[in-house]
């Protein structure tokens, strides 16, 4: 037993070296390197000479799985912080930091494909048969990640007309998939948080009404007025058509009924209140109170973008490696994977689409003095019935807080294969 660096020899166990008789913790034992570095069993080497590149193939997949594990660890901790009825304001920086970490890992995962691509299709063929039916399609952690972020069951591309979870036949794996579907996804938690955006519910600052008026004024200035002034009937007609297009587009979100119809069709996913919260944050992101929420929304879009980039890089590699051969997992291979590089797998697609409804700074409704003050101090989760000490001039909380949203969210998802 090595000398205890804290001087606790003999009488009690050393917190660094452990109990008398135990092996001292070192780099090797702490990282369980014996297990880790002996886990690369090349199938090609079992019956004949091992194929050199199979080593890279295994290491790459294992590295992915380790990073998936870390990403899940981060996403779970962020979900946990969001699960409280009111987000603890002191945790926002931590959430941002962890989501930023997730994006950096995902960037690494996107780039890691380049290394595997140094393997030629011919080299891959040397051991591909030995993989039997094993396929990345069976990656449990990848499915957990999709579900915990909030990929919808209905958005998934069916693989051989089968439920993706059919490949998991172990009870513990199925339980994990079931939990990941039924527990609140990051999407659902962020949606609820957006519905509580301060500024959405003040009597003297009716954001949505003011925003509607600003949109009208903007469209009037940039299209309607110039159209009225022109003498060219063809140009006038084109401008009026453009006006109608723009007006219809804005109306699809300004009008709550129309918005709900889009939700029912699956064109929008965020509840109307949450969507309004996202627009409010985007328009007023310069306000100190919205700096961090706006960064958070941006990171969520980064996660979607990076996963889409990964899907794209992966399918490009697959095409290069196996052309249009079927996958080892039994799918059509390239064709199947190509169909997953699509907006249907973007969880936070509505956030990307808020940009359609931004208006120039000059048209953004100015905040009332009191609201401006509140947005420099108040937490995101405005507490119903509670106002800041100085909040005694022109802003009041509207009765009937939307903290519980419009009922569109929080509905439990049932997992059925
Ligand atoms: C030579 C390299 C690779 C080839 C040829 C390949 C091929 C394929 C194919 C054909 C599929 C469709 C399912 C099937 O029929 O098997 C698939 C799915 C998948 N692969 Fe790969 N893959 C490669 C590398 C990787 C790597 C390094 C990862 C990292 C974990 C990975 C993760 C996945 C995942 C997660 C899926 C499921 C995607 C989905 O269903 O949306 N693959 N792969």
TrEMBL record:
Catalyses which reaction? L-tryptophan + O2 = N-formyl-L-kynurenine
Q: Which pathway is recorded for this entry?
A: Amino-acid degradation; L-tryptophan degradation via kynurenine pathway; L-kynurenine from L-tryptophan: step 1/2
Cofactor: binding details: Binds 1 heme group per subunit.
Keyword annotations for this protein, in alphabetical order, are:
Dioxygenase, Heme, Iron, Metal-binding, Oxidoreductase, Tryptophan catabolism
GO biological process terms on file: L-tryptophan catabolic process to acetyl-CoA; L-tryptophan catabolic process to kynurenine
Q: Name one GO molecular function term.
A: metal ion binding
Q: What's a Pfam family this protein contains?
A: Trp_dioxygenase
InterPro entries from the entry? Trp/Indoleamine_2_3_dOase-like (IPR037217), Trp_2_3_dOase (IPR004981)
In the UniProt record, does the keyword Cytoplasm occur?
Answer: no
Query: Which EC number(s) are documented for this chain?
Result: 1.13.11.11
Domain of life the protein comes from? Eukaryota
Region annotated Disordered sits at 383-417
Record's compositionally biased regions (Acidic residues):
387-398
Cofactor(s) the protein needs? heme
Function field: Heme-dependent dioxygenase that catalyzes the oxidative cleavage of the L-tryptophan (L-Trp) pyrrole ring and converts L-tryptophan to N-formyl-L-kynurenine. Catalyzes the oxidative cleavage of the indole moiety.
Family under the similarity heading? Belongs to the tryptophan 2,3-dioxygenase family.
Quote the subunit structure annotation: Homotetramer. Dimer of dimers.
What HAMAP family has UniProt attached to this entry?
Answer: T23O (MF_01972)
- Record's protein name: Tryptophan 2,3-dioxygenase
Protein species of origin: Elysia chlorotica
């Amino acid at each position: 037993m090595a000398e205890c660096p804290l001087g606790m020899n003999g009488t009690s166990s050393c917190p660094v070296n452990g109990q008398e008789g135990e092996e001292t913790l070192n780099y090797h034992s702490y990282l369980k390197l014996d297990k880790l570095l002996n886990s690369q069993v090349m199938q090609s080497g079992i019956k004949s000479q091992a194929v050199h590149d199979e080593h890279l193939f295994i290491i790459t997949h294992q590295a992915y799985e380790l990073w998936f594990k870390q990403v899940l660890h981060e996403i779970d901790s962020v979900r946990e912080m969001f699960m409280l009825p009111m987000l603890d304001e002191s945790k926002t920086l931590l959430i941002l930091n962890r989501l930023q970490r997730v994006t950096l890992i995902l960037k690494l995962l996107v780039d890691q494909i380049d290394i595997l691509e140094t393997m030629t299709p011919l080299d891959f063929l040397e051991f591909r048969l030995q993989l039997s039916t094993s396929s990345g399609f069976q990656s449990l952690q990848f499915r957990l990640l999709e579900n915990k972020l909030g990929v919808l069951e209905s958005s998934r591309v069916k693989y051989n007309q089968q439920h993706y979870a059919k490949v998991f036949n172990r009870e513990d794996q199925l339980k994990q998939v079931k939990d990941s579907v039924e527990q609140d996804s990051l999407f659902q938690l962020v949606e609820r948080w957006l519905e509580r955006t301060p500024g959405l519910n003040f009597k003297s600052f009716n954001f949505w009404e003011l925003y509607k008026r600003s949109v009208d004024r903007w469209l009037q200035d940039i299209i309607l007025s110039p159209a009225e002034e022109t003498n060219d009937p063809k140009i006038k007609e084109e401008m009026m058509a453009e006006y109608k297009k723009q007006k219809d587009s804005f109306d699809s979100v300004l009008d709550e009924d129309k918005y709900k119809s889009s939700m029912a069709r699956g064109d929008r996913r965020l509840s109307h209140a949450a969507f309004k919260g996202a627009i409010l944050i985007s328009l007023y992101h310069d306000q100190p109170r919205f700096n961090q929420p706006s960064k958070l929304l941006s990171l969520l879009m980064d996660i979607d973008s990076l996963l889409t980039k990964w899907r794209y890089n992966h399918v490009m590699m697959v095409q290069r490696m196996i052309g249009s051969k079927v996958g080892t997992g039994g799918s059509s291979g390239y064709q199947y994977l190509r169909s997953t590089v699509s907006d249907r797998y973007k969880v936070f697609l509505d956030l990307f689409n808020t940009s359609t409804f931004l208006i120039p700074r000059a048209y953004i409704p100015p905040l009332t003095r009191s609201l401006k003050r509140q947005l420099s101090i108040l937490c995101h989760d405005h507490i119903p019935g509670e106002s800041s000490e100085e909040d005694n001039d022109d802003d009041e909380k509207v009765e009937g807080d939307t903290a519980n949203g419009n009922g569109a969210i929080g509905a439990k998802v049932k997992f059925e294969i």
